[in-house]
Amino acid sequence: MSSFAVDQTLDKMNNNDHDIRYMAVNDLITQVKKENFKLDTNNENQLITKMLKLVEDSSGNVQNLTVECFGLLIPKISENQVKGIARKLTTRLLSEDQEAHDISALALRKVVSSTLNEQTKLNTELSTQMIPQMLKGIDSSEFVNVQLECIQIITDLIIRFNSLFVDLHEKIKTTFISKLTAYTAPGRIVEGLTQLSAAVNQNSFNSIIEEIIKKLESDKEVKNIRIYIQTISSISRLIGYRLGSHLKKLVPLILVYVEDEKYKEDDELRDNCLHSFESFVLRCPKEVGEFVTHFTKISLNLINYDPYYGDDGSSYSGSESGSFTDESYTASGSEGEDSFEEFQDEDDDEISDEEDLNDVDDVSWKVRKASAKCLTALVSTRPEQTEMFYTDVVPVLIKKFDEHEESVKLTVFETFIKLIKQTKIILSSKTGSKKIIDLLGKHVEKIITTLAKQFDAKSLKVKVAIFTILNLITQTFDNVLDAYAPKLLKGIKLALNDKSSSNTELKLSSLSFFKSLLKHNSPSSFYSNISDLIPDLMVAIKDPYYKIAASALKVGSVISTMVRPKKEDEIKEYNWKKIGVDLHSLFCEILKDQSLDQEVKEAVIIAISELISNLGDVLPDVLKTLNTLLERLSNEITRVVCIQSFRTIAESNIEIPLSKIIEKLMSSLSQFLRQKNRLVKQSSLRTMRSIVEKYGSTFNKKTYQETFSEMSRLVSDDDLHLAHLSLRLSANILKVKPEMANLIIDKIIPKVVELVSSPILQGIALKTTLWFYKTLITTKNSAIKFSSLIKPLYSVIKNRSTEEQLPKQAYLTVSQTIATLAIFSSEENCEKTVNGFTAELSKKKTHEPSALLALYAIGEIGSRKDLSSFKNLTDLLIGCFDAKSELISSAASYALGNVAAGCLDKFLSVVIEQIKNVPKHQYLLFRSLKEIISRISESETEYESIKKFIPSILDLLFANCENKDESTRNVVSECLGKIALFNPVELIPELKKKISTKSVFTRATIVGALKFAIHKDKTTVDKALKEHFHDFIVAIEDENHTVRLSALKTLNFASQAKPHIVQEELEYILPRLYKETQVKQELIKIVKFGQLVHVVDSGVENRKSAFDTMNILLSNSYNLLEPTDFVVTISNGFTDGNTEVLLAAHSLMKRMIRKNSEVVRAILDSLIEPLKRTITNELKKDADKQDLDENEQKIFSALRVVFNLSNIPDTDKSIKFTELINNTIQKNTNLASKYEAIVDNRIPDPDQSTLEYSTTSYF
Asked: Residue limits of the TATA-binding protein interacting (TIP20) domain (predicted)?
C-alpha cells in the first residue's frame, strides 16, 4: 500500500462524517485482504495509532468494523506493533472508562484469535504479557463486566496457546477457583475453568477436581452448589476420560442433592445434577458402570416430577382409556373423526389448564427434560442393558408420550428412538433377539394408543417425531403392527391432508412410515381401510415438490405388490381392481411427462412395473403402457430402471401381453450388452434370463444369433460376474431351445475355454461354468459331442511348454470341467478319459503340464466315481510322489486322496499303511488323508464307510502332532478337526485329552484342530462344542505365543460360525482377547545381517487375529460387549507399528463410531496424538516404492477415521480435535487435498461395502 494511499485513508479516518470514516476502514479492509499488502514502518505506526482511536469512535458501526480490520491486519504487521496494540487495549479495558470496556475486550479477543500459529515467540510474549494483567483485572476491577471479559480473554488464550504459558497455569487455577461462585451468571468462569482443566497436566487437573470436591463437601449455599455441579458437568463433557477416576467421590456427593428431601424444591439444582449424570454416562462410560442402575432409577423417578400437573405429570391412562380404539375407526371415517374431535376437545381443556397456571414460575420441565436426556445417554451407551430398558424404562417413556411440555415430550421421543435404533443393531447381530421382540410386544398396544391420540397434535415437530418412532418400530420388528392398521392409516391420512404451510417434513415422514408399514406387515390387515387413503396418496403423487411425489410413488409401488388379495383374504367392501385401475391411470399420466425430476421418473417406472406385474390381467391398455416403457429404454437416464422393470414384469405369474413386444425388447437388451455401463449390462442379462425362462421357446434363431453374438464378448475373466450371468443365460436358452446348441458351440464355447484356463476363475463364476457344461452335455442334441467339447480343454494344457505352465488354480478349473463332462456324459466316455490320463502318467518322459492335468482330472473324477476297476491306479499315483517336480508330487497327493474318497474300502487302508511305512512321503500322504476326510465330511451319509478306520487314523494323527515339520503338523491339525465332525460327542473329548500335554507343538496342533471341527451348517457338533469349548479356548492365555495364536484362530472361526457358543464364554474371553492386541516386547527380536538391522515381531499374527476377532464380535455380539473397554482396546492399536494391525484398528474404530459414537466421543482426545503421528509421518528420501505406498495407505486410513470422528456431535468442542483439523490437516496442502477427497467421497472407503457406492438397485 503506497504512502499516498495511506495518507488518503488517514485523512478519511479523521473526517467528521462517520460514514466517511466507515468507508475509510472498509477500503482499508479491501487492501489488507490482498496478498501483496505491505506497510513500511512509518505508515504502519500512523495507521495503527489512528485505528486505536477509531476503536473508541462515537459510531458503533465504525468501532465494529475497526475491530474486524484488526483481525485481518494482525498477521501482516510487525510483532512489536501487535504487542503494542494488545498493551494499549488492555490498559483501556482495565481503565475507569466504562464506555471503553466492551469494545476494548472485543478488540483484544480479535487480536488473540488472529495471530498465526507459527508465530510462537509472539504468541508466547503476548500470553505472558496479557495474562497477568487479566488476572489483575479479575481480582481488582470494580466492574463485573471487566472481570468477565478478562476471564473470557484468558479462556481464549488457553484454547489457543495453553502450552506456551505452563508456568502461569497455577495462578490462573487459583484465581478461577476463587471466583467460581462470585458471579450471578457463572457461564464464563465455568467455561474458563473447564478449558484450563483440559490444558493442565494430570496432577494439576486432579488438584482442580479435588478443590471442587472439597467445596461440594463444605459449602452449604445452594447457589454455589449448583455452580460446582455445573462446573463438574462441563469438565466431564469436555474431557470426561480424565475425570473417571474421581467419580467414586463425586457421584455420592451429587446424589445427595437429588435424593435428599431438603433439596426437593430446588428444580435448578436437580437439573444440574441430572446433567452431570448424563455427562458422566456419556464421557466416563466405564467408570460410571457401578452407578448405571442408580442413575436409571433416579431418572425414571424424576421424569414424572411435575408438581403442578399431578404426581406423574401425565394424563396417560393406557389402553383402558378407550378414547381411540380399533372400533373407533371405520372405512367411512365418520366415527374416527368424532374421536379425533374428542381429542381436540381434550387438548383444548389442557391448554385452558395451562392458562390458569401462567402466573406460576414452573421450571420443573427442566428436571423432566434432564431426566429424559440422562435416559437417552444410558440407552445410547449401554447396549448390554437393553432388555432391562424394555422392562423398566419403556413403560415410563410410554406414559410420558403425552407430556404437556413440548420440549420434554420431544426429548422423551428421542430417548425412545435411540432405544429402537440400538435394538435394531442388536437384532442384526442375532443375540437375544427373541426375548427383546417379546418384551416390545407387551408394550405395542400402549405405544400405538398413546401416539395415535396425538396424530392431530398442533406441533409439527411432535407429529414428525411420532411417525419417526412408528417407522423405526415397523422396520425393526416385522408384523407387530398388523392389529393397529386402522388407527395408523387414519394418522397417515391426517398427515397427508395437513394444510399448514410447513408440512413438507410431515408428509415425507408419514409417507416413509406408510411404505414401511405396508412392507413389514401382513397385506390382509390393510384391505378394509386402504381404499380410503388412495385418493390422498394420488394427491401426494401429484405434489409439485419432487421429494413428496417420489415418496408417494414408492408407496404406490408397495401397494401394487400387495393390493391383490389371496382368495381367502377377499372381502366384499374391498374393490382392489378399482384401486389398480386408478393407480394405473395416474402412473401412465406421470410417465408421459418428460419434464419431471429423475427421482420421480425412476419411481414411477418402478411403480408401474410392479402394478403391471401384479394386476396386469385386469388393467386397461397394458400393451400401450408396455410400449411406453419400451420407448423409455432409449433414455440413458432411466435406462437401468426400465430394464429392471421389464424383468419384474417378465417374472409375473399372471398373463401379460409382453409377448407382443418381446422380440423388439430382446433385440434392445442384446444391443445394450455393448454399453460401457456395467450396471446396464448386468441388468440386461438378468432381464433376458427372466424373459427366456418364460418366453424363450417362442423366439426364432435370428433373435438368438444377435443375443449370442453380443453376449460372447462378456464371457471372459475381465468381469467374472458378467461372465457368470452370460453363461447362466446361455444355459437357460439351451434348456428352453435345445436346437440353439450349434450357436452356443460356435459363439460361446471358444470363449468359455479361454475363461476356464484363467487362474482367477472361482466362486459363483466357476460354479456357473461347471453347471453350463453339465447342461450342455446332458442336452439331447446331435450337435453336442463329447469329443468336440473335451478336446479344446486338453489343448489349453497340452499346447503349453513347461516354462509356460498355468497356475494351480487353472489346472484345477480345467480338470473340474473335464470331470463334469466325463461323469455326466456316458460310462464309456468316462472310462476312455481316465484311461487316457493313466496312459499319460505311464509315459517314461511325460509332459509336465499334461501330467498335472491328468493327476488333477483323475482326482476330480475319482472323488465322484469309483475308480477301483482301474488296475494299479494307486501305485501309479504314489509313484508320482517321487517326481522331480514338486508340482507333480503335490498333484499326485491330491489325486490319491480324492480317488480314495471315492472308494474307501479299496484305497484308504493303502494310504494309512503308506503313512506308517514310508516316512519320506509322509507329508504328501497326510495331504491325501486330508482330502479323503474333507470329501467324506461333506457328506451326511458316508460316516459308516469310514467309521471302522477312525481308531487307526486317530492313532496316526496323534502320533504326528509333534512332527518336526510345521507343514505336516498343520495338515494333521486339519485332519483331526474334520474327522471329529463324524462323531463330535465322542471325538472332541478325545482331542481335549491331549491339551494338557507339555509339548508346545501338540497343544498348538490340538487347539487349532477344533477350528476345523466347527462347521457353520452342521448343528450336530454344537452340543459337544458347548460342553468342551472352554477347555480349548483357555489356550488363549498359554505361555507360548504359538499356542495362543492357534487359540485365537479357533476363536475367530467359532465367532463367525457358532457365535452363540462363543457368547457364553465372552466374560472369560474378552479381557484375554484384548490383552492379545497389545505389543509384547518379549516377542520382538533384533536380527543383524552385517550392517543391516532387521526387527522381527513374532506377535504380529496374534494381534492381527485378535483385532479380526473383535471385528466379528462387533457384528454378532454387540450388545454383550462393554463398549468402553472395547473402544479403548481399539485405540491402543492406533500406535501399533505394523501396518496391517494399524489399519485393522482404524477400520474397527470407524465401525464403532457408527454403532456407538457416544463412547468414542468419551475418549476422543486420547485418539488425536496417534492419529496426528500417522498423518504427519514422513519417510526418508531414499524410501522404496513399497514403503511409500504403505505410508500413503496409513495416512488415508487415519484421515478416514478423522472424517468419521468429525461426524460425532460435539467433536468441535474438543480443542485437540479442532487443532488437528484446522492446523495439522487444513494448513498442509497435501493433507488438505486428501481429506477433501475423502469428505467428497471421491476416494471411496475400502472398508465400506461396494454396494454403498454403486448405483442403487431397485429390485
From this structure: 1061-1222
> What would you report as the CA-atom Rg of the chain, rounded to the nearest whole angstrom?
38
Split at pLDDT 50, 70, 90, the class of 569 is low
Helix or strand or coil: residue 143? Answer: coil
Mean pLDDT of 859-888: 91
CA–CA distances in Å: residue 165 to residues 89, 111, 118, 1216, 1219: 21, 17, 16, 17, 18
Contact by Cβ (8 Å): 733, 699: no
d(CA 278, CA 749): 68
Instruction: Assess contact for 1137 and 1237: CB atoms under 8 A.
Output: no
CB contact at 8 A, 59 and 67: no
Q: Give the span between the Cα atoms of 997 and 975, in whole angstroms.
A: 19
Q: What is the pLDDT of residues 778-801, one digit of tens each?
A: 998 888 999 999 999 998 887 776
pLDDT confidence band for 440 (50 / 70 / 90): confident
Residue keyed to cell 378407550: 322
Burial of 119 (0-12, 13-18, 19+ CB in 10 A): middle
Give the span between the Cα atoms of 317 and 325, in whole angstroms. Answer: 13
Amino acid letter, 281: V
Cα separations (Å) of 1146 from 1104, 1131, 1202, 1204?
Answer: 12, 8, 10, 10
| Helix, strand, coil in percent for the chain, rounding step 5 | 75, 0, 25
**pTM for this one?**
0.80
CA atoms of 1088 and 787, how far apart (whole Å) = 61
pLDDT tens digits for 1077-1128? Answer: 999 999 988 887 777 778 889 999 999 999 999 999 998 888 788 888 999 9
Nearest CA-CA partner of 233 in 223, 221, 247, 219: 247
Residue pair 663/650 in contact (Cβ under 8 Å)? The answer is no
Q: Report the residue count for the chain.
A: 1259
Query: What is the DSSP secondary-structure string of 1144-1192?
Result: HHHHHHHHHHHH-HHHHHHTHHHHHHHHHHHHT----TT--HHHHHHHH
What does the alpha-carbon distance between residue 780 and residue 906 come to, in Å, rounded to a whole number? 36
CA distance 968 to 965: 5
Closest among 37, 47, 41, 39 to 10, alpha carbons compared: 47
Closest CA to 1194 of 1171, 1226, 1164: 1171
Q: Which residues contact residue 218 at a Cβ distance below 8 angstroms, ignoring those fewer than 6 apart?
A: none
CA atoms of 149 and 95, how far apart (whole Å): 13
- Cβ neighbours of residue 76 closer than 8 Å, sequence gap 6 or more: 32, 37, 38, 39
Three-class SS of residue 716?
A: coil
Distance CA 1172, CA 1231 (A): 11
How far is Cα 260 from Cα 266, in angstroms, rounded to an integer?
11
- Share the mean pLDDT of the chain: 88
**b/e sequence 436-456, b meaning 16+ C-beta within 10 Å:** bbebbeebeebbbbbbbbbbb
Between CA 954 and CA 441 the distance in angstroms is: 52
Query: Alpha carbon of 1049 to those of 932, 1055, 1103: distances in Å?
Result: 24, 10, 11
Mean pLDDT value across residues 582-592: 94
First CA to last CA across the chain, in angstroms? 66
Taking the C-alpha atoms of residue 1083 and residue 161, their distance in angstroms, rounded to an integer, is 41
Measured between alpha carbons, how far is 326 from 854 in angstroms, rounded to an integer? 74
Q: What is the DSSP letter of 1257?
A: P
Contacts of 496 (CB under 8 A, 6+ apart): 507, 510, 511, 533, 536, 537, 539, 540
Which is nearest to 975 in space by CA: 908, 1035, 1040, 883?
908
Cell of 399: 406414559
Residue 1097 gets which letter from DSSP?
Answer: E
The answer to which of 16-20, 357-361, 534-538, 1071-1075 has the lowest mean pLDDT is 357-361
